[in-house]
Amino acid sequence: MDPYNSRNQLNPSMNSDQTAADVSGNNQTSGNVDKTTADSSDTQPATRQPQYAGGFTIIPPNEARRSQIKTMAQKEEEELRRWKEVNRPSAVHLNPERLGGHVSESEARQKQLANLRGSKLQKKLKKEELDRKKRQEEEEKLQKMKDEQREKAERLEQRRQQEEQRRKDHLRTDHLRSREAFLQRFERRDVAASSSAAHTSSRGEDVESKQRAKESKRSEREVQLEHQRVNSDFLDKLEGRARGSETKKEAEHPFVATENFKPETTTGHVQLPHLKPEPSWTEGADSEPDYNWALIKLTNRFPDCSKDFLEDILQQCNGDYEEALTLLICSLS
To answer: What's the start-to-end Cα distance of the chain, in Å?
Structure first.
């Protein structure tokens, strides 16, 4: 039997006290191990050896360190007590007053009853005020959003207009460039076209004059057609009267034949010399469909060219479709 274990079993109270002291000392010195090891190495007695009890290792505490900490704690407690004594609040001394202030009980109850009666109305008014403020804030917020959206839409519309204007300018410049290139190629390749370039330099004035001439011709043609219509109506009336008189004579004298009977014309109308149209009018009326037909054929043949340009070419060629077609093919090839 081990004598060390028997000694620990005989003195359990001493072992427990010593264990508690060792644990407390170990806890106090565990915070600053590096600092206390240097101090305790000089002051530790030779008897501070680890002890073993019930599977635990017990190290005796440093008595000098414990006494120093204890003295410091007592000093701090004394200073705290003195500070509390110095800073203790003084007693409050108030003059005695009647409870309830300067209002009697009946007046206080009447005031309380009036407040109770008007509390519902006050709550209602307060709620209405809060609702009004809330609606006003919502309207302001909505108006602000509308203004922002309106400004955004205006900016988008302005940007769209600027882009549209920029696109139109670009297309206009491109059209002018292509037109100038076409005219230059047309003047450079064809000698006949170059000879007529001086004539077509003032194209705007020529087009206007030609349009005026065309309108005048159209108005003259309309007048001629109106005259022809009136004349034909007049001739129809005369022919109807003549036929009526002849039928009446035949009814009166059925067996009498006129010797000086002249056959009617193939048209059935009486040709009057003052109603006969001039040859220039008929020539203009006959040449106009040929000119329009040639212009339609050129338009179908060259759909990329403008109508004014084709009219100009056709007029330069005196309405000759074949000559205008050859000129356009030579210039565009």
So the answer is: 132
Q: How many domains does the chain have?
A: 3
Asked whether residue 63 is domain-assigned, the answer is yes
Distance CA 187, CA 194 (A): 5
Are both 194 and 308 inside the same structural domain?
yes
* Cα distances (Å, whole numbers) of residue 123 to 118, 133, 135, 168, 263: 8, 15, 18, 66, 119
228 & 299 share domain: yes
Q: Report which residue type is found at 291.
A: Y
What are 51-99's pLDDT values in tens digits?
888 888 888 888 899 999 999 999 999 999 999 999 998 888 888 777 7
Output the CA torsion sign for 13, 18, 20, 21.
positive
Cα–Cα separations (whole angstroms), residue 192 to 182, 188, 226, 327:
16, 10, 42, 8
Same domain, 171 and 48: no
216 and 294 part of one domain: yes
Using DSSP's 3-state secondary structure scheme, residue 261 falls into coil
92 falls within a domain: no
Strand ranges for the chain from DSSP E? 51-53, 56-58
The answer as to whether 94 is a domain residue is no
Say if residue 228 is in the same domain as residue 185.
no
The two tokens of residue 187 are: 């003047």
The rounded distance, in Å, linking the Cα atoms of 325 and 319 is: 11
More confident residue, 121 or 235: 121
Q: How far apart are CA 204 and CA 79, in angstroms?
A: 115
Token duo for residue 117? 């009666």
Q: pLDDT per residue over 285-297, tens digit each?
A: 445 667 888 888 8
The domain containing residue 179 runs over which residues?
Answer: 118-189
Q: Could you read off the pLDDT of 160-217 as tens digits, one per residue? A: 999 999 999 999 988 888 888 888 877 776 655 455 545 555 566 767 777 778 887 8
- The answer to whether 51 and 18 are in contact (CB under 8 A) is yes
For the whole model, what pTM was predicted? 0.24
In angstroms, the CA 17 to CA 15 distance is: 6
For residue 131, the model assigns a pLDDT of: 96
